[in-house]
Design goal:
With 357 residues, the chain is α/β, with parallel strands linked by helices. The chain folds into 2 domains: 2-162 and 340-356, 3-Layer(aba) Sandwich (Rossmann fold); 183-338, Rossmann fold. It is 42% helix and 17% strand. Strands 3-2-1-4-5-6-7 form a 7-stranded parallel sheet, sandwiched between helices. The longest helix is centred in the last third of the chain and has 16 residues, at 341-356. The radius of gyration is 21 Å and the shape is globular. It starts with a strand and ends with a helix. 44% of the residues are buried. The model has no long low-confidence stretch (mean pLDDT 92).
Length: 357
Protein backbone atom coordinates (compact mmCIF):
# COMPACT_ATOMS: atom_id res chain seq x y z
CA UNK A 1 0.00 0.00 0.00
CA UNK A 2 1.25 3.51 -0.81
CA UNK A 3 0.87 5.94 2.08
CA UNK A 4 1.48 9.71 2.02
CA UNK A 5 1.97 11.40 5.40
CA UNK A 6 1.72 15.18 5.82
CA UNK A 7 3.43 16.88 8.76
CA UNK A 8 4.30 20.54 9.36
CA UNK A 9 6.30 20.30 12.58
CA UNK A 10 9.39 22.54 12.16
CA UNK A 11 11.43 20.90 14.91
CA UNK A 12 11.96 17.38 16.19
CA UNK A 13 9.09 16.32 18.45
CA UNK A 14 7.16 13.33 19.73
CA UNK A 15 4.91 13.58 16.67
CA UNK A 16 7.90 13.58 14.34
CA UNK A 17 9.35 10.59 16.17
CA UNK A 18 6.03 8.76 15.75
CA UNK A 19 6.14 9.32 11.98
CA UNK A 20 9.72 8.02 11.82
CA UNK A 21 8.97 4.88 13.82
CA UNK A 22 5.71 4.12 12.00
CA UNK A 23 7.37 4.66 8.61
CA UNK A 24 10.25 2.33 9.45
CA UNK A 25 7.90 -0.43 10.60
CA UNK A 26 5.52 0.00 7.65
CA UNK A 27 8.44 -0.29 5.22
CA UNK A 28 9.46 -3.56 6.91
CA UNK A 29 5.91 -4.81 6.33
CA UNK A 30 6.11 -4.12 2.59
CA UNK A 31 4.30 -0.79 2.36
CA UNK A 32 5.62 2.32 0.66
CA UNK A 33 5.68 5.52 2.72
CA UNK A 34 6.30 9.06 1.50
CA UNK A 35 6.43 11.98 3.93
CA UNK A 36 5.60 15.55 2.94
CA UNK A 37 7.01 18.01 5.48
CA UNK A 38 8.40 21.51 5.82
CA UNK A 39 11.78 22.46 4.29
CA UNK A 40 14.58 22.37 6.88
CA UNK A 41 12.37 20.57 9.39
CA UNK A 42 13.57 17.81 11.67
CA UNK A 43 11.84 15.20 9.51
CA UNK A 44 13.30 16.56 6.26
CA UNK A 45 16.79 16.06 7.70
CA UNK A 46 16.26 12.76 9.50
CA UNK A 47 14.12 10.67 7.13
CA UNK A 48 16.55 10.58 4.17
CA UNK A 49 19.10 9.00 6.53
CA UNK A 50 16.60 6.14 6.93
CA UNK A 51 15.92 5.89 3.17
CA UNK A 52 12.36 7.14 3.63
CA UNK A 53 11.21 9.27 0.64
CA UNK A 54 10.60 12.91 1.54
CA UNK A 55 9.18 15.88 -0.31
CA UNK A 56 9.22 19.37 1.20
CA UNK A 57 6.40 21.87 0.82
CA UNK A 58 5.55 24.90 2.93
CA UNK A 59 1.83 25.70 2.55
CA UNK A 60 2.46 29.09 4.25
CA UNK A 61 -1.06 29.12 5.69
CA UNK A 62 -3.79 26.65 6.63
CA UNK A 63 -6.02 27.78 3.75
CA UNK A 64 -3.55 28.34 0.92
CA UNK A 65 -5.81 26.84 -1.76
CA UNK A 66 -3.28 27.68 -4.48
CA UNK A 67 -1.11 24.81 -3.29
CA UNK A 68 -3.80 22.14 -3.81
CA UNK A 69 -2.90 21.41 -7.50
CA UNK A 70 0.69 20.74 -6.38
CA UNK A 71 -0.53 18.34 -3.70
CA UNK A 72 -2.79 16.52 -6.17
CA UNK A 73 0.17 16.15 -8.50
CA UNK A 74 2.21 14.69 -5.63
CA UNK A 75 -0.59 12.24 -4.79
CA UNK A 76 -1.02 11.06 -8.36
CA UNK A 77 2.71 10.89 -9.15
CA UNK A 78 3.29 8.55 -6.19
CA UNK A 79 0.13 6.52 -6.85
CA UNK A 80 -1.00 7.12 -3.28
CA UNK A 81 -3.71 4.94 -1.74
CA UNK A 82 -4.06 6.56 1.69
CA UNK A 83 -3.28 10.06 2.96
CA UNK A 84 -2.56 10.68 6.64
CA UNK A 85 -2.49 14.31 7.83
CA UNK A 86 -0.70 14.95 11.12
CA UNK A 87 -0.49 18.76 11.37
CA UNK A 88 -3.12 21.54 11.32
CA UNK A 89 -1.21 23.49 8.68
CA UNK A 90 -1.98 20.68 6.23
CA UNK A 91 -5.46 19.74 7.51
CA UNK A 92 -7.51 21.67 4.97
CA UNK A 93 -5.28 21.75 1.89
CA UNK A 94 -4.27 18.08 2.08
CA UNK A 95 -7.78 16.84 2.87
CA UNK A 96 -9.21 18.84 -0.05
CA UNK A 97 -6.47 17.49 -2.33
CA UNK A 98 -7.29 13.98 -1.14
CA UNK A 99 -10.99 14.43 -1.76
CA UNK A 100 -10.41 15.87 -5.25
CA UNK A 101 -8.11 12.97 -6.13
CA UNK A 102 -10.54 10.39 -4.65
CA UNK A 103 -8.13 8.98 -2.07
CA UNK A 104 -8.76 7.74 1.46
CA UNK A 105 -8.00 10.57 3.91
CA UNK A 106 -7.08 10.06 7.56
CA UNK A 107 -6.38 12.79 10.08
CA UNK A 108 -4.24 12.14 13.16
CA UNK A 109 -4.75 14.14 16.32
CA UNK A 110 -1.72 14.20 18.66
CA UNK A 111 -2.90 17.09 20.83
CA UNK A 112 -6.36 18.33 21.87
CA UNK A 113 -6.73 21.60 19.85
CA UNK A 114 -10.08 22.32 21.48
CA UNK A 115 -11.98 25.07 19.63
CA UNK A 116 -14.83 27.45 20.39
CA UNK A 117 -17.27 29.58 18.39
CA UNK A 118 -16.88 29.83 14.62
CA UNK A 119 -13.62 27.82 14.63
CA UNK A 120 -15.48 24.95 16.24
CA UNK A 121 -18.14 25.04 13.52
CA UNK A 122 -15.50 25.17 10.76
CA UNK A 123 -13.61 22.23 12.23
CA UNK A 124 -16.85 20.23 12.45
CA UNK A 125 -17.01 20.48 8.65
CA UNK A 126 -13.43 19.22 8.37
CA UNK A 127 -13.95 16.23 10.65
CA UNK A 128 -17.35 15.18 9.35
CA UNK A 129 -17.06 15.87 5.60
CA UNK A 130 -13.43 15.89 4.46
CA UNK A 131 -11.82 12.94 6.24
CA UNK A 132 -12.71 9.24 6.26
CA UNK A 133 -11.22 8.41 9.64
CA UNK A 134 -9.65 10.22 12.58
CA UNK A 135 -6.81 8.63 14.53
CA UNK A 136 -6.53 9.78 18.15
CA UNK A 137 -3.31 8.96 19.97
CA UNK A 138 -5.09 8.79 23.33
CA UNK A 139 -8.51 7.96 24.74
CA UNK A 140 -8.62 11.50 26.12
CA UNK A 141 -8.42 13.02 22.64
CA UNK A 142 -11.17 10.72 21.38
CA UNK A 143 -13.46 11.74 24.24
CA UNK A 144 -12.86 15.44 23.55
CA UNK A 145 -13.43 15.07 19.81
CA UNK A 146 -16.74 13.33 20.38
CA UNK A 147 -17.77 15.93 22.96
CA UNK A 148 -16.76 18.97 20.91
CA UNK A 149 -17.79 17.92 17.40
CA UNK A 150 -20.43 15.19 17.80
CA UNK A 151 -18.28 12.82 15.74
CA UNK A 152 -19.65 9.25 15.63
CA UNK A 153 -17.71 6.80 17.76
CA UNK A 154 -16.92 4.54 14.80
CA UNK A 155 -15.18 7.35 12.91
CA UNK A 156 -12.45 7.78 15.57
CA UNK A 157 -9.86 5.07 16.11
CA UNK A 158 -7.47 5.21 19.06
CA UNK A 159 -3.98 4.09 18.08
CA UNK A 160 -1.27 4.86 20.60
CA UNK A 161 2.23 6.05 19.86
CA UNK A 162 4.54 3.07 19.46
CA UNK A 163 7.74 2.45 21.39
CA UNK A 164 10.66 0.49 19.98
CA UNK A 165 11.46 -1.61 23.04
CA UNK A 166 14.80 -2.65 21.58
CA UNK A 167 16.04 0.89 22.24
CA UNK A 168 14.83 1.04 25.83
CA UNK A 169 15.93 -1.46 28.40
CA UNK A 170 15.51 -2.04 32.11
CA UNK A 171 18.92 -1.27 33.62
CA UNK A 172 20.33 -3.73 36.14
CA UNK A 173 21.39 -0.76 38.24
CA UNK A 174 21.05 3.00 38.11
CA UNK A 175 23.75 4.34 35.83
CA UNK A 176 23.70 7.76 37.49
CA UNK A 177 27.19 9.09 36.84
CA UNK A 178 26.21 12.77 36.92
CA UNK A 179 25.19 12.86 40.59
CA UNK A 180 25.61 9.31 41.97
CA UNK A 181 24.98 10.37 45.58
CA UNK A 182 21.58 11.91 44.80
CA UNK A 183 18.20 11.15 43.35
CA UNK A 184 17.94 12.36 39.75
CA UNK A 185 14.64 13.45 38.21
CA UNK A 186 14.37 14.41 34.55
CA UNK A 187 12.05 16.49 32.41
CA UNK A 188 12.36 15.69 28.69
CA UNK A 189 10.42 18.21 26.65
CA UNK A 190 10.48 21.05 24.17
CA UNK A 191 11.14 24.15 26.22
CA UNK A 192 8.14 26.05 24.90
CA UNK A 193 5.01 27.68 26.27
CA UNK A 194 2.17 25.46 27.48
CA UNK A 195 4.51 22.67 28.57
CA UNK A 196 4.16 23.41 32.29
CA UNK A 197 7.88 24.05 32.71
CA UNK A 198 7.56 27.17 34.85
CA UNK A 199 5.22 25.23 37.11
CA UNK A 200 7.85 22.48 37.35
CA UNK A 201 10.72 24.81 38.24
CA UNK A 202 8.49 26.58 40.77
CA UNK A 203 7.96 23.15 42.38
CA UNK A 204 11.68 22.55 42.94
CA UNK A 205 11.99 24.59 46.19
CA UNK A 206 9.12 22.56 47.69
CA UNK A 207 10.76 19.29 46.62
CA UNK A 208 14.21 20.06 48.05
CA UNK A 209 12.63 20.94 51.41
CA UNK A 210 11.57 17.28 51.68
CA UNK A 211 14.28 15.54 49.63
CA UNK A 212 17.51 17.48 49.63
CA UNK A 213 19.89 15.05 47.91
CA UNK A 214 18.20 15.48 44.53
CA UNK A 215 19.21 16.89 41.16
CA UNK A 216 17.05 17.75 38.15
CA UNK A 217 17.97 17.55 34.50
CA UNK A 218 15.99 19.33 31.80
CA UNK A 219 16.51 17.80 28.38
CA UNK A 220 15.49 19.82 25.33
CA UNK A 221 15.61 23.24 23.75
CA UNK A 222 13.03 25.85 22.86
CA UNK A 223 11.87 29.42 23.05
CA UNK A 224 11.65 29.46 26.86
CA UNK A 225 15.12 28.12 27.63
CA UNK A 226 16.65 31.38 28.85
CA UNK A 227 13.51 32.33 30.75
CA UNK A 228 13.59 29.01 32.56
CA UNK A 229 17.27 29.39 33.40
CA UNK A 230 16.55 32.86 34.79
CA UNK A 231 13.74 31.41 36.91
CA UNK A 232 16.08 28.83 38.47
CA UNK A 233 18.39 31.68 39.47
CA UNK A 234 15.51 33.74 40.85
CA UNK A 235 14.40 30.80 42.99
CA UNK A 236 18.03 30.06 43.96
CA UNK A 237 17.84 26.48 42.68
CA UNK A 238 20.19 26.79 39.70
CA UNK A 239 22.70 24.51 41.47
CA UNK A 240 19.99 21.83 41.52
CA UNK A 241 19.24 21.96 37.77
CA UNK A 242 21.23 20.98 34.69
CA UNK A 243 20.02 22.05 31.26
CA UNK A 244 21.40 19.52 28.75
CA UNK A 245 20.09 21.06 25.52
CA UNK A 246 18.79 18.87 22.70
CA UNK A 247 19.97 15.26 23.02
CA UNK A 248 19.58 12.19 20.86
CA UNK A 249 20.80 9.68 23.47
CA UNK A 250 17.52 9.56 25.40
CA UNK A 251 17.73 5.83 26.25
CA UNK A 252 21.14 6.39 27.86
CA UNK A 253 19.89 9.45 29.75
CA UNK A 254 16.92 7.50 31.08
CA UNK A 255 19.23 4.81 32.41
CA UNK A 256 20.75 7.44 34.70
CA UNK A 257 17.60 8.86 36.28
CA UNK A 258 15.24 7.65 38.98
CA UNK A 259 11.97 9.19 37.77
CA UNK A 260 10.75 11.61 35.12
CA UNK A 261 8.26 14.47 35.33
CA UNK A 262 5.77 15.48 32.64
CA UNK A 263 4.25 18.78 33.87
CA UNK A 264 2.37 19.75 30.69
CA UNK A 265 -1.18 20.88 31.57
CA UNK A 266 -2.54 19.61 28.22
CA UNK A 267 -0.97 16.72 26.32
CA UNK A 268 -2.38 14.07 24.04
CA UNK A 269 0.13 11.35 24.87
CA UNK A 270 3.72 12.28 25.72
CA UNK A 271 6.24 10.23 23.74
CA UNK A 272 9.01 11.11 26.20
CA UNK A 273 6.87 9.86 29.10
CA UNK A 274 6.21 6.59 27.27
CA UNK A 275 9.94 6.20 26.64
CA UNK A 276 10.54 6.76 30.34
CA UNK A 277 8.03 4.05 31.21
CA UNK A 278 9.65 1.72 28.67
CA UNK A 279 12.90 2.22 30.59
CA UNK A 280 11.12 1.28 33.84
CA UNK A 281 11.28 4.86 35.10
CA UNK A 282 7.94 5.97 36.57
CA UNK A 283 6.42 9.32 35.64
CA UNK A 284 4.75 12.11 37.56
CA UNK A 285 2.23 13.49 35.05
CA UNK A 286 -0.80 15.75 35.09
CA UNK A 287 -4.44 14.81 34.75
CA UNK A 288 -4.54 17.02 31.65
CA UNK A 289 -2.58 14.45 29.66
CA UNK A 290 -3.58 11.18 28.04
CA UNK A 291 -1.27 9.47 30.53
CA UNK A 292 -4.05 9.77 33.10
CA UNK A 293 -5.85 6.97 31.22
CA UNK A 294 -2.93 4.53 31.33
CA UNK A 295 -0.98 5.24 34.53
CA UNK A 296 -2.47 3.60 37.61
CA UNK A 297 -2.09 6.34 40.20
CA UNK A 298 0.29 5.50 43.06
CA UNK A 299 1.08 2.16 41.42
CA UNK A 300 2.75 2.74 38.04
CA UNK A 301 3.27 6.47 38.47
CA UNK A 302 1.66 9.56 39.95
CA UNK A 303 -1.09 11.76 38.48
CA UNK A 304 -1.52 15.31 39.79
CA UNK A 305 -3.66 18.29 38.86
CA UNK A 306 -2.15 20.61 36.24
CA UNK A 307 -0.70 24.07 36.92
CA UNK A 308 -0.17 23.41 40.62
CA UNK A 309 3.46 23.57 41.72
CA UNK A 310 2.78 22.41 45.27
CA UNK A 311 0.80 19.37 44.12
CA UNK A 312 3.45 18.56 41.51
CA UNK A 313 6.12 18.75 44.21
CA UNK A 314 4.09 16.49 46.51
CA UNK A 315 3.74 13.99 43.66
CA UNK A 316 7.50 13.87 43.12
CA UNK A 317 8.17 13.48 46.83
CA UNK A 318 5.51 10.79 47.22
CA UNK A 319 6.91 8.79 44.30
CA UNK A 320 10.53 8.98 45.46
CA UNK A 321 9.61 8.06 49.03
CA UNK A 322 7.69 5.00 47.79
CA UNK A 323 9.01 1.88 46.05
CA UNK A 324 9.51 3.83 42.82
CA UNK A 325 11.54 1.03 41.25
CA UNK A 326 8.54 -1.28 41.54
CA UNK A 327 6.38 1.49 40.07
CA UNK A 328 8.84 1.61 37.18
CA UNK A 329 8.48 -2.11 36.58
CA UNK A 330 4.68 -1.71 36.54
CA UNK A 331 5.07 1.14 34.05
CA UNK A 332 7.20 -1.06 31.80
CA UNK A 333 4.46 -3.72 31.81
CA UNK A 334 1.98 -1.16 30.50
CA UNK A 335 4.28 -0.35 27.58
CA UNK A 336 4.85 -4.03 26.82
CA UNK A 337 1.10 -4.71 26.79
CA UNK A 338 -0.19 -1.68 24.86
CA UNK A 339 2.54 0.42 23.28
CA UNK A 340 5.06 -1.77 21.49
CA UNK A 341 5.75 -0.49 17.99
CA UNK A 342 4.80 -3.79 16.37
CA UNK A 343 1.44 -3.87 18.21
CA UNK A 344 0.35 -0.34 17.31
CA UNK A 345 1.54 -0.52 13.69
CA UNK A 346 -0.41 -3.77 13.28
CA UNK A 347 -3.50 -1.85 14.44
CA UNK A 348 -2.66 0.95 11.98
CA UNK A 349 -2.18 -1.57 9.17
CA UNK A 350 -5.54 -3.21 9.96
CA UNK A 351 -7.21 0.21 9.80
CA UNK A 352 -5.69 0.88 6.39
CA UNK A 353 -7.03 -2.42 5.10
CA UNK A 354 -10.58 -1.70 6.31
CA UNK A 355 -10.55 1.76 4.73
CA UNK A 356 -9.28 0.62 1.32
CA UNK A 357 -11.55 -2.40 0.81
Amino acid sequence: MNILIFDATPHWSGGANRILLYSQELLKRGHRVTVCCLPESGLSRRLPEENIPVCTINPKSDLNLLIIPKLIQLIEKNNIDVIEICSPKFYWVASLAGRLSHRVVMLTRNVPYRKKGIKKQINRLLYNKLVDRIIAVSDKIKRELKEDFNIPDHKITVIYDGIDLHRFRIPNKNNNTLHPEQYVAAVISRLDENKGLECFISAIPYIVQKINPIHFIIVGTGSMEQKLKDLTKKLTVSDKVTFTGFRTDIPEILCGVDITIMPSPEEGMSMSALESMASAKPVVATSGSGLADIIINNRSGIIVNPDNSKELADGVVTLLQSDYKQAGREARKIIEEKFTLQTVVAQYEQLLETLTI
